[in-house]
Amino acid sequence: MARRKSKLFINNVDGFSALSLDVLCEIFSSLLPRDLLHLARTNKALRSFVLNRSNSMIWKAAFANNALAKGPPGCPPYMSEPAWAHVAFDNFCEGCQEKLREDPNVDTVWWEFGGRYCSDCVPTLMTIDIPAKLKRLYPADTIPERVLPRIGRDAPGQFRWYNLVSDQTKLLQQLSATRSAARRREITLKRTQETALIQQHSMRCRYWAASKIDDYQDDIMRRKQAKANKEGDLLRAKAEQVAKRLRARGWGDEDWMVNGMLARHLQYYPGFENSKSSTARLSREFDDRLVARLTADRKKYLQQEGGSDNA
Ligand SMILES: [Zn+2]
């Protein structure tokens, strides 16, 4: 296959002059969007290189790699790739820029609002009301709830729809700036169409996030199960080993034991699992204690049997 001509735009980027264009292309085509975000924050030169619109191919490559890695849905048509990478991968509050805690059990992105918001900023940046003065500027046949992106959340006691205050403020300014009803209709319709795209794409993102959480929780369960299985195997092996030593001392499977089996019965003795019998002397002492318990249990069983016979 003919090698595609490299088309990176480089402008005095630190250190890059030592690398050939082909090598640079090779490096950049293997990165993920998150890597590019980090690079863009490394220094000014890298930032201008990564964010240069002429180099959008490195973002296209990064999002193609992201798709292969089953990352979040690709860039929506209403955003640039770097802006979308910020929404999907950055982890700080859009309001106060505070770094947020990562929790693989929770989808923390307010996808429709393009980012994450801390609990302090939510009450000031979001609203559950659509202002009357905004509604008055909408054409009469408008469904006010459909004009701007919104997110439904379970608030204490009830389910609520949230809007971004900044979305409302901006639209209010745009609509107030014109006296033409036709122009207001045009603005409202355009915003409603943009919102429909945002809601659609955000829905895909939410499904992706939910399935990622499911995968994470399934993985945790599998690990727990594997650990439990391994521990169970170890415990059974240990019980077999001890039972073998006790058989040499005259013990065997008896009806009154758990499942009628000595090895099974031993596993239920408190401390059996964690006991260490690393030396011959410790093993012997350990076995002596088990024999004492078995003897006591057998005696108790026989007494109960005798008691019930008498009843
Ligand atoms: Zn905040």
UniProtKB/TrEMBL annotation:
<protein>
    <submittedName>
        <fullName>F-box domain-containing protein</fullName>
    </submittedName>
</protein>
<dbReference type="InterPro" id="IPR036047">
    <property type="entry name" value="F-box-like_dom_sf"/>
</dbReference>
<dbReference type="Pfam" id="PF00646">
    <property type="entry name" value="F-box"/>
</dbReference>
<feature type="domain" description="F-box">
    <location>
        <begin position="16"/>
        <end position="53"/>
    </location>
</feature>
<dbReference type="InterPro" id="IPR001810">
    <property type="entry name" value="F-box_dom"/>
</dbReference>
